[in-house]
Amino acid sequence: MAHFSGLGLILRMIISKSFIVLCLIVLVSCGSLAAAQAAARESRQTDKLSYRPDDPANASAFDHFYNLEYDRAVQQFGEVLQRHQDDPFAVNHYLTAVLFRELYRMGVLNTGEYANDSFVKAAHNPADPKAKQQIKDLAARAFKLEEDRLSASQNDVDMLYARGVTRAQFATYTGLVEHAWLSALRNAVGARHDHERVLELAPNDLQAKLIVGAHNYVVGNLPWGVKVAGSVVGLGGNKDKGLQYLRECAAGSGETSVDARILLVLFLRRERRFDEALPIVRGLISAYPHNLLMALEEGNLLRAANKNSEAATVYRRVWQAGKEGDYSGLHYETSALSLGDLLRDQKDYVGAASSYDMVNGIPQPDSEILRKSNLGAGEMYDMLRNRDLALKRYEQVVAVNTTSPQADEARKYIQDPYKGD
């Protein structure tokens, strides 16, 4: 029994760390693997920006997707799928858009959480049951199309590539939505193996280096003992090789250059190589001006680099742009929460409380952001010895959701004032 308990502990360590692969491939956030599987084999080999299936709506759908305009992306990818019902690439595009729309609604695409391992335990909004079923149905549909083609030709590069993407997206779903870590890990490893096989058959295929590079980087960061255990389940890795693969993708003209740049931003922040990450994120902001997550990531990078004044300027700029309608339908109030956290770290309790309170001034803020902001404001008012306002904010936290982690904290401070961390 001790042997199996030790093995279980090792697997938990592998899963908790290597699961970052899933989330960061996701992103993000920001971006996704949707574009990574858009092109046909021929276009991948020549690294041209083209999409499969060859449908004029794909370019517009991807533009909406990267600008976080998920409803429009879902609509247009759905229209493409209606015209190409037996194409797994079309199914994967639609699957990705539906999945990321739900992840954004749940609040799990905040890039700040992925700079460390805290995202594994972070509490978010629950998934919608209808969206969960739709995602599972689409994944099953894509898998069947891919498996049918691969059963006839096991070295079909397009289908190996498409299946790897489906596996990666389903790993994202099972991990971030279902919290089924073993299933997520199994699908992530399967995605990597599919794309490693693509590279064996087509060595110049830059697109396939996205997943393989991300896995190499993350697993390459594991402690030596866990890395050895990980190799047993097919999770070998080399950090430098991973970054090199991603740089090759980012430098190419193929559609995965966007995804690779997004991943590089996240990985470089973990490496504290802020000067290298900042130009990349600013280029993404220029290309996709409505991508709120990338706009916030610029502030996050500056804050992590201890450039607090510049970070505050970015957060304020994002807040103002949101007020002016630049991020329609997106939760730009995150910028006020981020600004409050920054000022709080600087012991500017008045400024922090004011920033947190801005969230209350907009219509229909995200409930999680509202809870966090009101809790932060209450804590700041306690530090400023304004007990009446502190109690009011704590009561607002509880009123939003009585069972949330923030409500538990608020009830504690209603009984006993917050005195500092």
Describe this structure in words.
- The chain is mainly alpha-helical.
- The chain contains 20 helices and no strands.
- The protein has helices spanning 2-26, 41-46, 57-66, 70-83, 88-106, 129-152, 157-176, 181-201, 209-220, 224-232, 239-251, 256-270, 274-287, 292-304, 308-323, 334-345, 349-358, 367-383, 387-400, 405-415.
- The longest helix is centred in the first third of the chain and has 25 residues, at 2-26.
- The radius of gyration is 22 Å and the shape is globular.
Keywords:
421 residues, mainly alpha, 20 helices, 70% helix, globular, disordered N terminus
Short overview:
The chain has 421 residues and is mainly alpha-helical.
Write down the overall geometry. Answer: globular
Largest sheet: none
Percent in helix: over 70%
Order of helices and strands: HHHHHHHHHHHHHHHHHHHH
Supply Rg.
22 Å
Low-confidence runs of at least 5 consecutive residues: 1-49
What is the beta-strand fraction?
Answer: under 5%
Structural class: mainly alpha
- Average pLDDT taken over every residue: 85
Number of strands: 0
What is the count of helical runs? Answer: 20
Topology:
Blueprint: H1 2-26, H2 41-46, H3 57-66, H4 70-83, H5 88-106, H6 129-152, H7 157-176, H8 181-201, H9 209-220, H10 224-232, H11 239-251, H12 256-270, H13 274-287, H14 292-304, H15 308-323, H16 334-345, H17 349-358, H18 367-383, H19 387-400, H20 405-415
